[in-house]
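Quick one: structure for this chain?
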Amino acid sequence: MDTINAMSGGSNAYAFGKEVTGTSSGVMYGNPHEPWDGVQRFYQFHLTMPGELDVMGAAQQGQPFPNIGFNKDVAWSHTVSTAKRFTLYQLSLVDGDPLKYNYTNSAGVTEQRDIETVPVTIQLPNNQTQVHNIYVSQYGPMLAVNLLNGQLPAWGANNLAYTIRDAASENPRALNQWRSMNKATSVEDLVDRMQSVLGLGFVNTIATDRNGKALYADISTVPNVTKAKLEACSSAASGPFLGALIASDLPALNGSTAACEWGVDTDSPQAGIFGRSNLPFLIRDDYVANSNDSYWLSNLEQPLTGFSPLLRRRLAPFLGATPAAGVPLLMRSRMGLVQIQDRFSNKDNLGGTNFNLNNMQKVVYGNRSYVAELVLDDVLADCRANASMPLTGGSTIDATNACNILSNWDRRNNLDSKGAHVFREFWRNVDFNETTDTIFSVKFDAKDPVNTPRGLIISADTRTALGDSIKFFQDKNIALDAPLSDLQYIVDASKNDERIAMHGGFGREGVFNVAETRGTSANDGANYLINFGPTYMQSVTFDKSGPVAEALLGYSQASDTTRPFHRDQSSRYSAKEWIRLPFNTNDVSKQAVGNKIQLKE
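Got it. Here's what it folds into:
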């Protein structure tokens, strides 16, 4: 069965304003990283409703309005936000009755409230049915938290039970939100439309317009839980479990008192979520960027601060008397910001210091490995000093040849990059959490978030990680200097499973252009068969005639292998080509394929 997992996705997006584009208009790039199969698959379309809408872009299956796209004035994309969309609630059960809990209402009166039993009928094959009960508190469904973490109590143990309140389940406004966004006339207008509807469920928005403005916003549905409320409602007085949940970055509150109910903002269209005045956005004339990190650093010159911890990836660092200013960025976020800095200084050798459609495309398809740029010199220095690397099994392996190959590697994930796979498996073996700094000698500094942490600590673990990587490929008889194109690809089922080599790399390596294999066969020993990563990639600017847009759909439009559009765009991606999209009526008529279908009421 296909499911939607918002947090397993990801994305990159850039928006550049007139201060850095060399024109009076903005330039933007967006690439949502999503699964290539199932219900999250995007499709491209151009929607025209005379007098109402003229917008082009992509949406996930079943959605009638572009989620990501552009009109004649504005272009936007989305990335997955770090904000929490739910809170857990700890219920204090009535002695001897696991279906009742104590609740002190706003008048200070303690009541006994019921956990409702709701029978659900499931249709089975052969006209059979099965009935199961679900259980619901005033907050929402009950949870068996011990199945998530064995250290948490089972329902009834310690006279406790756990339930969840989910802001998304109370939000029916997503389609209205995208319909409104499709009609935006500027980034300021776009912000107003998002603040008024507040219908985005789990995404940031990055946008630009013909006026040369760049926008970052996390204007989405977030439970109205302030820092003060989160601290008060998870204190030690409620027992040890709430604190443990928060340490695991799960917002958890005491559900036995009205004082811990979600707050209400008068400027919110939905009870219990933050209103427009408590959600972050930033409009700039230079740039904004996001690669699934928090709202904090969409622009290095203007950090955003002061919002609820629930909008952050991690919770605990932002609580207490001296909350942190920030935590280490994702490696991909650091790469995204470094790429911007290198373009402004021409360190990337693309000429000039501005962003335009052409050089931006070269930047995002550059496939640099930020982690390699960060740690490979340390690894090679150690290898030159002692090339005998330990293996997990206890023996050793000579890393001389591998280290020579890695020293000649271009530290990119292009099709002709030789050695990228060796580094990939090395870094996969390193025990590393992206938002900590434990494996680095120079610790994270919130005043220098792009350049810290750094300085890989060479240890028995990192040396074993390299040794195991080398042995992994030797055992599979795969050349250590094989080009990435030999290993990383998709297949075209319509052409007898012909291979299409795919450039790009893993987000954990700090590769901005994510192309990954997800699932149990993440690497079968010889192949990285891509099924996650580049989806609807759009690069957009504006001229006097309207939008100038070039785009690609990484897996192509048709999932049906018998159709001519099954892998056509995938081949263009492999060649780093883009498709100029027709927007005005004349261009659409010239490039139309098939017969025109006109829908009427």
